[in-house]
Amino acid sequence: MKKINVLLSTFFGYGYLTKIPGTVTSAVTTVFIYIAYEILGYTDLKFSIIFFILLFFYSFYAVKDSESEFKNKDPRQIVIDEVLGQSMPLILLLYLNQTNQISISIEIYYILSFVFFRFFDILKPFPVSYFDKNHKNYFGIIMDDIMAGLYSMILIYFMSLKF
């Protein structure tokens, strides 16, 4: 079971990249979801939300189980938190697209979702910084990216408003 959790926590090995594994994982997540939603036409919003929630809760267990593998309280190899945080504004895009609240090209929203998430994940404004600094464990690893994803969702939502 531990091998499966390490595989999930490193997002199938992307966490082992020597340079910018978090950014690469966010980019891969964005491209994967773009292909699923926009090219393959997968548009089941309920399933996407349920899958996200299940992955969110299971990730706490997987990351906690994997931490001892890396001998670090915040190992850079663990990138499932990037997948979760990056997925949040992209799932919102699915909703906005279904409700015709997209006012510019959908591809621009995908790019901005990636840029916004990486911006907040790297700069760590409050409360992203709170979870990063005060919870040096599996909880903090996941929650700081959830907060960065939440900020990204808010910006994407405001961009979708038609004034």
Largest sheet: none
Structural classification: mainly alpha
What's the alpha carbon Rg, rounded to whole Å? 15 Å
Q: Calculate the terminal CA-CA distance, rounded to whole Å.
A: 51 Å
Any idea what the shape is?
Answer: globular
Q: How many helices in DSSP terms?
A: 7
Helix content: over 70%
Could you state the order of secondary-structure elements as H and E?
HHHHHHH
Quick check: average pLDDT? 94
Structure summary, number of beta strands: 0
Low-pLDDT stretches are none
Binned strand content = under 5%
Outline the fold blueprint.
Blueprint: H1 2-9, H2 21-39, H3 45-70, H4 80-98, H5 106-123, H6 128-134, H7 138-160
Helix pairs in contact: 1-3, 2-4, 2-5, 3-4, 3-7, 4-5, 4-7, 5-7, 6-7
What labels would you give this structure?
globular; single chain; 163 residues; mainly alpha; 7 helices
Give me a quick take on this structure.
The protein is an all-alpha fold. The protein has helices at 2-9, 21-39, 45-70, 80-98, 106-123, 128-134, 138-160. Helix 3 (45-70) packs antiparallel against helix 7 (138-160).
